[in-house]
Predict the structure.
Amino acid sequence: MKRTVYLITAALFGFFCTACTQEDDWKPLFNGENLENFDTYLGPPFPRLEELAAHVTPENVYSVVELAGEKVIRVSGEVHGSMATRESFSNYHLQMVFKWGEYVPHERNSGLLYHSYDPFGASYWTWMGSMEFQLMHGNLGDAYIMVDEIQCEASVENRNNQYIYAPGGEKVQFGQQHRRRMIRKALDNENPLGEWNTVDLYCFGTTAVHVVNGKTVLVNENISVSKDGESTPLTSGKIQIQSEGAEFFIKTMKIKPIVAIPAGLLEIDNE
């Protein structure tokens, strides 16, 4: 009996230690106090909003404010802008919790840009070269290639020249040289305006999985950079958050290493 109790106790101890270790693997990118882990950059103004852009600074486009009693990142959206991690990452699970605000000077658009490289301004005079996990309201989870030299492929269905992610569909290459840069999400799992959304990005090797509020909506594969006729796998880079037309808030943003894409994530649950 004593041996049985000991074994059960040891098993429970091991389980809880494993759970603690997995939780401790998370590294906060937003430390809950300031933006010391990020660099910021402002690009050109939106059409007809030049006067507004003339009065903004990196510090008021990207700031830390108090919302409902806790500190969050506020992105004003008043001008094209980037907030980029100072570190580069590979083989990771990133999780971010965000919601849209009420201030909309242009439109509710933004993106979580990953595998970012090169200087600010390489993409649309603002952002680093990168892949995009689309945050735009109504399109949350889409993928977009931010610069001409990046390529990827995905399993898709072609619906009226819109490429919709579909596991088991036709493998199609994307990139400027293929004249297609947008991959649409398989399903809409965005929460209503004013509610928090949780987005999870899993990157391992040349594969990236977009998850919205717990459901896989898109998978990119064979992400690479093509320069001077040579293709190089794109497996790492900085993380950027776009300022692109509207106010939104980031409650948490954290990252942890992974050794593989978790089982089951490559499947779509339409229920």
Remarks:
- Residues 1-21 have pLDDT under 50 and may be disordered.
- The chain has three helices and 20 strands.
